[in-house]
Structures are given as C-alpha cells and as structure tokens.
Automatic annotation (TrEMBL):
Residues 496-617 form the Aconitase A/isopropylmalate dehydratase small subunit swivel domain. This is Homoaconitase, mitochondrial. It comes from Magnusiomyces paraingens. GO terms for molecular function: 4 iron, 4 sulfur cluster binding; homoaconitate hydratase activity; metal ion binding. It comes from the Eukaryota. PANTHER family: HOMOACONITASE, MITOCHONDRIAL, HOMOACONITASE, MITOCHONDRIAL-RELATED.
C-alpha cells in the first residue's frame, strides 16, 4: 500500500522534475510531466514528449473479472511471484450476477491467487473496479494508473493519468512491474462558462462526442482547462473523464484544483481513520505539489465548448457519435421499455440522489422496467442512509448488485428484440446491452429517471405537465497550432525501423482478397459480442463463428481464411477485450486494413500478432466504387499485396489484374517483428524471461 510518506516524497520529486524540465528549455504539458515521473530507463536528461515510446512503471494496475485470464497468462510466462504486490489491485465486478458454479470457481481462483500473492482484493458486491480505485485512493492526483479495462480514463476526474492496457500487458506488469506506452498527441479542451439548470456533466461529454465526432481526439490524451471547471463537481468530472473513452481518447485529465482538494478534505470527514492512502498528509501533498503544464507547452489542438449553451442532450440510438437535443427527441414521443441507472459512469451518490429527486412520489410507468445499481457498496450504503435508494425502490425500480451487469450485456434486464432503452451508462453500441435489434440511448440520470416515469424519452419537467425550453445551438470551436492551421489530427512518430530487414520466420509478403466492412467506428462489441467476453474457455471455432456477428450476422458466410478486412475510420473503438483481435485471427484473417484504428485495438493487435495497416486512400477508393451498394460486408474482387521488405502495398483489381493503388507504408521494425514471430507479446515476454 502507498503510504503518505511515499506520496509526499512523490510530490517533492514532481516539483523538482517540473523545475528541471523548464530549466532545460523543453516545455511539457501535464500529461508529459506525469509520464516523465513514471517512465523508466530514460536516457539522462531526456524529457518525455508526445510521440515517444516509453517503458512506464505505473503506480497501480487494476484487473477485474479478467484477472484469471491474466493470471493464466502470467503463469504461462513462467512467472511465479508478482514483481510488486503494492502495484496490483484485483476487483470482481463485471459478471457478479452470474451464480453458476463455473463463474464462482473462477472467482474463487482469483481470490485464492490474490491471497497467495498478497495482493489487494475486492470481492463481488464491493463495487465497480474504477469506483473502488477512486474511493480507496489507488488513483490519486498526479499519478499514473492503468487497468485492463477501457474505462480507466475515469481516473482523470481526480487528476490521475488513467489509461487502459490489455490482458497481456497486465500479465507483463505483474511479472516485470512495467509496460510500454507511446505518449499520444495531447489535445487541450477548454470548458467555458457554467452549465444552465437541468444540464449535467453527462450532457457535457455527450455533447463533445456528438459535436467533435470526426476523430478530432482519436488516440489523443486530453487535458481539460478553462473557467468552467470551477463549476463542475468531481462526480461530473469523473463522468466526463469516463466517457472520453467513447470520444476516442486515451485519457481525459482534469487539473488538481480547489474543487478537487476540497472534495478530498470532505472525504476525510467520512472515511474510516486511519486510511492507508487517503488521509490528511496525502491530501496536503496533493495540494502542495501544484503541477501544471508549462505556459509554452505544446498541444496538437485546442477544442472549446461553451457550457452555458449546453442543454440536456441524448446520445443515440446505438451510437455515441450521434447526439440529439432532448427537446427534439421528446417531441417525437419515443416510447421506452427499459431504463438503466447503472455503471461506472453515472451511479455515484450524486447521480442516485438526482434520479431520486426526479422520481420521488411517482411510479415507474406501466410496461417499463427501471434497473438501478450503485457504483459501489459504499455508494449504496450512503444512498440507503439518506433515503435516495428507498425512494427509487418505492417508485418501482429494480435493484441490481453493485457492479457492471447490463452495461456490458450481462445479467438481468437486457434489451430484447425491438425494445428501446435509455441508460445512464457510457456505451450504446448495437447489441451491447442485449439484442442487436434493439435501440439504446444514453442520457443523464435525471433524464433516465424522468423517462422511466413518462414511459418515453422526455424531460423531468414533463412529469408535471410543463413544457421545457427549446434548446439553442451549442457554441464550440477547434484550433490547430499556428504553424499548421489546416492540420489533420497530429501523428506520432513511428517505432524504431528495420531498414527493410526481415526476421527469420516473418513472412516477406502478405496478401489476400479485400473484404469491405463499410462503416466507421466499428466497435469491439460489433467485432466480438460482450456476452462471450467473460467466458474464458470459448474454443477457437466458436470465436471464429461469432466474429463480427453484431456488425453483420452474415459475416461468417461471406468470408474465409486468407481474406483481408478493409474498413473505415476508428476501427476497433470501445473496450479492451483482446478477443476483438483474436476472433479475427481465429477466422484465419491475418491482416486488417482501415482508415484509422482505435488505439486499444491496435495495442491488442500487436500483443496478439494480428497485423494492421492504416491506408485512408484505399477505403476512400472502395467507398467511391461501392457507394451505392448497401451490403455492410462485401467481397470486393480487389487483392492487396504487402511487400514487407520494401514497405510497399499494391492493390489490384482481380488477383492478377491491373494495379489500382501502390503506396509506401511504414517499415515494420524488428521489435514488432519479434513480437509477431513469437506469436504475440505473451510469447515474446516468455522468451525474454
């Protein structure tokens, strides 16, 4: 456990590093400064900058229900002892409603592993791992913490640089204490003004996802700034940071300011004393550290949002990149069958209280099921104490245990064919919360509660027969650095290249027919359905069968081994599940080409030996050719040939037909080739050990 002495030492060292960075004439933003602290093996005097590949030793690494697959990988590496037992935290939260002997055995295995290794462990029912990481002080200001879950961005709400890793990375952290990260380009997001009555932090992030929905922040780190921050509570910051994942970012970092310090001080009044990580000494250390971006720090872009123009807004259906004002949706009288107040996004105490205020003295509409689950047992206890929990249950809400559940398509209350649901969660991907033939919307806790009472998507004011004000336009802007005013999203540097050399065992040529999956933002739920994610013994044949079924149920009949998938932009956005890469491999597909990739999918691809190429020109050419064809998956008759040695891609119309595209691509460095030859990062680490 991290002691207050260690935290104060950390704060002093951060101040020293800040001074050194400025003195060296190399400005750093806040993200770079935090990475600087946790980077290992840097050359003397090296200052971390965006684009750098670094080895990092995170303060903490959290795994949840995937802890047993991680443990299996860990033991498969030949490792016997966790390198740093203070670093690892295990929580059980995703499939807590599953009381099957198979799942309970897995949970026992995880708990026994934790006891044997001396690791901090939180059993099923204690709460969602991300909430625990914040409540228990594992994620703290100016800290770098990772988790094998895509919503570790949440930690940015308390000034912690939280970013996701995948299962193989987690096993490596357990064995070595370290993992790798490429420092992304950093975007500054300025929030101005104050939210009007009725709008919340959820509306802010839903608005950002809907307004800036063309990959403006894809694979960026985000730093929130602006005078609007003083009006956003820590709970609202946690919600916004949580959903920077859905926006496409790798992290969403809020500053350590008076709002946050006062939040910690208020927590000291209710926490059991002494607490090993959150106490008066640690809070004083956070306050004294005062780490800020240098005034001349570099940012890839600056986005601005005027909070005073944000009204209640709804995401969907079935996409976080589509946002519509609540006023517009309410007028359409869209009936709902299910409502959800669950997840790591909006199930904290303030969220439950807000929903209870709306629903107090009323009943859930006939034909509607309203599911509620607290983010943690601590939150539920507090909600029970102040009466908010009772209010929800008296209205007809259906309680769920503190945990994930329907957000990922597990447990009770999933959407059925043709149903419409509105949820205070973070993802409404097709098929994620149940049937792929259902419609899912996202909104704030207040709107979810109101909709449960109204039986349709609507405002809290409508319950009393009042007409809410129409929404105006949301003021926003985006700026790029003056030196590149028309710039597209910033690119980071490539890894060490190999000068065209090919390692023994690595194919010199990779080729196959292109199969077009014509959509942007194809998410990991579309690639590998969430309902299979925590079944740890799914055979390869089954993985191949369900590959892409939420995207296209006919994908399996249209493709075969040796094909190459070609898709749009931000392919693989969403969760950290490795099966999104391994199910593609299970179908015998060795290469995916896209306009761009979600970083977490790229990371999984490297770690599991699935090759990827970004060729925006190619997807644009195919879209022009097949623009009138409505098939979501189609064989193109075009063949791609990747000459790895010359770093050249050639595309022909027909296997031996005329050339339609020739393009140079980045050289595949020896370090990445080694990982692929070893069958992925797990095999590579095992060879190193």
């Amino acid at each position: 456990m991290i002691s207050s002495i260690r935290l104060q030492s950390f704060a002093r060292s951060m101040i020293t590093r800040r001074t050194l960075a400025t003195a060296a004439g190399i400005p750093q933003n806040l993200t770079e400064k935090i990475v600087q602290k946790y980077a290992v093996g840097l050359a003397p005097g090296k200052k971390v900058q965006s684009g750098d590949y670094v080895s990092v030793q995170p303060s903490h690494c959290m795994t949840h229900d995937n802890s047993w697959p991680v443990a299996t990988k860990f033991m498969g590496l030949g490792a016997t002892r966790v390198k740093d037992t203070n670093q690892v935290v295990l929580t059980l939260d995703h499939d807590v409603q599953n009381k099957s002997e198979k799942n309970l055995e897995k949970y026992r295995n995880i708990e026994n592993f934790a006891k044997k290794q001396g690791l901090d462990f939180y059993p099923a029912g204690r709460g969602i791992g991300h909430q625990i990481m914040v409540e228990e002080g594992y994620a703290f200001p100016y800290n770098l913490t990772v988790a094998s879950d895509s919503h570790s961005n949440t930690y940015g709400g308390v000034g912690c640089l939280g970013t996701p890793i995948v299962r193989t990375d987690a096993a490596s952290v357990w064995a070595t204490g370290q993992t790798w990260w490429q420092v992304p380009p950093v975007a500054k997001v300025e929030l101005q003004g104050k939210l009007p009555a009725g709008a919340s932090g959820k509306d802010v992030i839903v608005a950002l996802c809907g307004i800036f929905n063309n990959d403006e922040v894809l694979n960026h780190a985000i730093e929130f700034v602006g005078d609007g921050l003083e009006h956003l509570s820590v709970d609202e910051r946690l919600t916004i940071a949580n959903m920077t994942t859905e926006w496409g970012a790798l992290s969403g970092l809020f500053p350590v300011d008076n709002v946050l310090i006062n939040w910690y001080k208020n927590r000291l009044l209710v926490l059991p004393q002494p607490h090993p990580r959150v106490n008066a000494e640690t809070v004083e250390a956070f306050q004294k550290a005062q780490i800020h971006a240098d005034v001349d720090a570099k940012y890839a872009k600056k986005l601005t949002l005027d909070l005073s123009t944000v009204s209640p807004i709804v995401s969907g259906p079935n996409s976080v990149k589509v946002s519509t004002s609540l006023a517009e949706l309410s007028a359409k009288n869209i009936p709902i069958q299910k409502a959800y107040l669950v997840s790591c996004t909006n199930s904290r105490l303030s969220d439950i209280e807000a929903a209870a205020k709306v629903i107090k003295g009323r009943k859930v509409a006939d034909g509607v099921e309203f599911y509620v689950g607290a983010a943690s047992s601590v939150v539920q206890k507090d909600a029970e104490k102040n009466g908010a929990w009772k209010t929800l249950l008296e209205a007809g809400a259906i309680p769920l245990p503190a945990g994930c559940g329907p957000c990922i398509g597990l447990g009770a209350g999933l959407l059925k064919d043709g149903e419409v649901g509105i949820s205070a969660t973070n993802r409404n991907f097709k098929g994620r919360m149940g049937s792929r033939d259902a419609l899912a919307y996202l909104a704030s806790p207040e709107v979810v509660a109101a909709s449960a009472v109204l039986g349709k998507i609507g405002f809290p004011e409508e319950i009393d027969g009042k007409a809410p004000a129409n929404a105006g336009g949301i003021k926003h802007s985006i700026e790029y650095p003056a030196a590149d005013a028309s710039a597209a999203p910033a690119e980071v540097s490539a890894p060490e290249t190999s000068s065209g050399s090919i390692l023994e065992g690595f194919p010199e040529v990779i080729e196959g027919e292109l199969v077009l999956c014509d959509a942007d933002n194809i998410n990991t739920d579309a690639i590998y359905p969430g309902k299979y994610t925590y079944e740890d013994d799914v055979p390869k044949e089954k993985m191949a069968q369900v590959c892409m079924e939420n995207y296209d149920p006919d994908f399996g009949s249209k493709t075969h081994a040796g094909d190459v998938i070609i898709s749009g932009f931000n392919f693989g956005t969403g969760s950290s599940r490795e099966q999104a890469a391994t199910c593609i491999l299970a179908r015998g597909i060795q290469l995916v080409v896209a306009g761009s990739f979600g970083n977490i999918f790229s990371r999984n691809s490297i770690n599991n030996a699935l090759l990827t190429l970004e060729i925006p020109a190619l997807i644009n050419m195919l879209r022009e050719k097949y623009g009138e064809n409505k098939d979501v998956t189609q064989r193109t008759g075009w063949f791609i040939k990747w000459d790895v040695k010359s770093s050249t891609v050639t595309v022909t119309d027909g296997q031996n037909g005329p050339v339609v595209l020739t393009q140079k691509v980045g050289e595949l460095g020896k370090n990445l080739q080694e990982i692929i030859v070893k069958g992925g990062l797990e095999g590579w680490v095992k060879a190193q050990l």
